[in-house]
Automatic annotation (TrEMBL):
This protein's UniProt keywords: Cytoplasm
Family recorded in the similarity comment: Belongs to the universal stress protein A family.
UspA domain location: 5-149, 180-304
Protein name: UspA domain protein
Source organism per UniProt: Nitrosococcus halophilus (strain Nc4)
Length: 320
């Protein structure tokens, strides 16, 4: 794969207020390891600026332009600190937009980053991730790989799980699994991590099978299905030279199986795919369910079919 040239980190007011966010930590980590350009970006909007209740004096003093100047000044401070401390190439920008995701998408369209990183909040007490409207919109529409940074830890294990489903018609037609593997393999190689390929097989429930094939062997059906999935998976992985001990096939519901496996290997990052078929409702996220995004406590990387091309020779011993 080629080097990642530009990483876009979307920050919030918290980061400007000197409250560190996982997204910035990941961006610095990846940029440092890959020699990529790091761009820091804030998209904000405060409706209180447009209400007369805040008073004429305050309204005159605090206009969007005032906030943008403040944000740019603070971003410049952060950029200079990172450039000096980490020896990184860092730039920054800020935008005022009624809808945060519009500002972010305009930035993505402008600079065409190879990777975007944004912090999302995971409540360990509730075992839930607190997605907002902007998060879901980006998951559905962001054209570049989108990393959702949850964990406060700095990828201590560097175990990267790539979720693939070669039996999924949409993903197969659009090369989604290949995109997932390539970016996961690239990250594992560049960050000296450990790559795991994960696939789950959900068999037809036995009562339904009995109605569909009266008198047929359910065990034979399961064996035939598993062999078919293994064949498809082997064909998918053949070009990548990934060692067999890094390939994992689970049997059961994909969402629950993935959550269990990610916990088993103490994953730092799970890479999965999203295919949008025309409307926001018709979104397929690999072979998983919405609950996976919600319940995973580690970082998540959402990949769309055929992202910006990245190719590089990867050495097998890193994964084998």
């Amino acid at each position: 794969m080629a080097k990642r040239q530009r990483v876009l980190v979307v920050l919030s007011q918290n980061e400007l207020d000197s409250q560190p966010e996982p997204a910035l930590d990941r961006g610095v980590f990846i940029a440092r390891e890959t020699n990529a350009m790091l761009e820091l970006f804030v998209s904000e909007y405060h409706p209180s600026f447009y209400t007369p209740l805040i008073g004429k004096t305050l309204h005159n003093e605090w206009k969007p332009e005032t906030y943008i100047r403040f944000a740019l000044s603070r971003l410049q401070e952060i950029s200079e600190t990172l450039a000096n401390r980490e020896q990184l190439r860092v730039s920054s920008d800020a935008a005022w937009n009624r809808h945060q995701y519009d500002g972010i998408m305009q930035k993505v369209s402008s600079i065409k980053p190879d990777l975007m990183i944004k912090t999302i909040r995971h409540d360990s007490r509730l075992n839930r991730t607190l997605f907002n409207y902007t998060d879901w919109h980006l998951i559905r529409t962001c054209p570049c790989p989108l990393m959702l940074a949850k964990s406060e830890d700095t990828w201590a294990t560097r175990a990267i799980v790539a979720c693939v489903d070669p039996s999924h018609i949409h993903g197969r037609e659009e090369g989604l699994d290949n995109s997932i593997i390539e970016i996961a393999q690239w990250l594992a190689y560049r960050l000296r991590g450990e790559l795991h390929i994960f696939h789950a097989i959900e068999f037809m429930p036995e009562p339904i099978f009995r109605l569909w094939q009266p008198g047929a062997s359910y065990d034979n059906y399961k064996q035939d299905s598993r062999e078919e999935h293994e064949t498809l998976l082997n064909e998918l992985l053949r070009p990548y030279g990934i060692g067999s001990r890094r390939i994992h096939i689970a049997e059961g519901r994909p969402a629950e199986s993935l959550l269990s496996f990610a916990k088993e290997v103490n994953a730092s990052l799970v890479v999965m795919g999203a295919v949008s078929k025309g409307t926001l409702e018709n979104l397929f996220i690999g072979n998983t369910a919405e609950k996976v995004l919600d319940a995973l406590s580690c970082d998540i990387l959402i990949v769309k079919p055929n992202p910006i091309e990245v190719r590089e020779t990867v050495v097998e011993p890193v994964f084998g």
